[in-house]
Amino acid sequence: MLLAIDQGTTGTTCLVVDRDLRTIGRGYRALSQHFPAPGLVEHDPDELWETVEAAARAAVADAGVAPSELVAVGLTNQRETTLLWDRRSGRPLGRALVWQDRRTAARCAELSRDLIRERTGLVPDPYFSATKLEWLLARAGAAGDLAFGTVDSWLAWRLTGEHVTDVSNASRTMLLGLASLDWDDELLALFGVPRSILPRLVPSSGIVGEAELLGVRLPLAAIAGDQQAALFGQACVEPGAAKATHGTGSFVLANAGFEPPAPHEGILATVAWRLGDAPAVYALEGSVFVTGAAVQWLRDGLGLLADAAETEGLARSLDGNEGVYFVPALAGLGSPHWAPQARGLVTGLTLGTRREHLARAALEAIAFQTRDVLDAMRASGLELGVLRADGGATANRFLMQFQADIARMPVELPAERETTALGAAALAGLAVGVWSSADEVAAAWRCAERYEPQLPEAEAERLLAEWRAAVARTLR
């Protein structure tokens, strides 16, 4: 049995997984969010670790197994979130800056888009780690023997004492050469980052060290960014295979094969994973910052919902959206626009607009934004087939059908919904010999539901055109 740690933006999930990639135990602990000012989002690094310990303990108890029965640990994490700590004391230098944090937007506007795109496959945006790290370093001064890390590095340090990151997480920092798979000296100089603070680069699947957890020592055998782990967990191991994870934001990834994809407008190129010494697999990615968070905002910010699950019934109570569109640029716009200055907009309001319209518009926005990313991927020349979806929003049947209708492609849901954690477990299992190949892992994937497009194409295109008109107003 394997232990998978999935440290996410709002909480940590741990799973105990068997050889058939079935979940036999689950634990979860929520993570506090800190918003010291508009546009600023932070996490407490010590609490990150505490949620891992608590969720792991709960998962093992739920599975009814002893920690000594586990054979390895796989780790996956929220990406781009950035922190510094002192190597000697092991203490963090303040809070972590979360991927949603926008404090470095002005700095990103100064950067050369062409240089960043060519070297890293990314675009200059506060989303990524480099400008966050630059900001932290400017305030650290001579604070000691510093170590930089994204969340995977911090947790691997706490588990094993090793200062490492895998290539999938490193590819999200804006400091890694996408082709070289090494830290880029020119980018390090640009952001004033000394090599001495950087973690050692390791494969996504491979033994990093011995982890001390739950009173036992286990090999930490996998590290991967959460979206790359979900791509692997969804068995998207062939070029053109795509998945969409709908959580706080939505992240659409498609396997692009063994060559770094050429830069293409609106989408990112990233490392998907590296299995041991094998060549790295690359992916195209579209990062949509606010999808599920828009529903949370309707619930917590406006008080229009008691529970996010209400949105399905509210949406179905209407025959259509009646011209109401919600562009949830509540943290700027990510793919394919990359407009950090954009702000949210609702269009089509009338005296007859009710909470039902806003709930439906928030759900439809998830599907529209996903379609925009898929179109950018298709424009790059990548052929897409089926879209495999995961994340909490997949429980919403209205949304999944609307996603198929707007994307104009089938949407499949896996039998095991915790695909991010399962991907981490699968990567760890490959490293310790539970499975012999990625194809063997993929064979364990099972489809639970499949949604085919039902809306007439002309109607889908009309809705999409009205959505894009609303986006255009947001960008202006």
Task: List the SSEs and their pairings.
Elements: E1 2-7, E2 11-17, E3 23-30, E4 42-43, H1 45-63, E5 72-77, E6 82-86, E7 96-97, H2 105-110, H3 113-120, H4 129-140, E8 146-150, H5 151-160, E9 164-166, H6 167-170, H7 185-191, E10 200-202, E11 205-213, E12 216-225, H8 226-233, E13 242-246, E14 250-257, E15 268-273, E16 281-288, H9 292-301, H10 310-316, E17 325-327, E18 345-347, H11 355-379, E19 387-390, H12 397-407, E20 411-414, H13 419-431, H14 438-442, E21 447-451, H15 457-475
Parallel strand pairs: 1-5, 5-12, 9-10, 13-19, 19-20
Antiparallel strand pairs: 1-2, 2-3, 4-7, 6-8, 11-12, 13-14, 14-16, 15-16, 17-18, 20-21
Helix pairs in contact: 8-13, 9-11, 10-11, 11-12
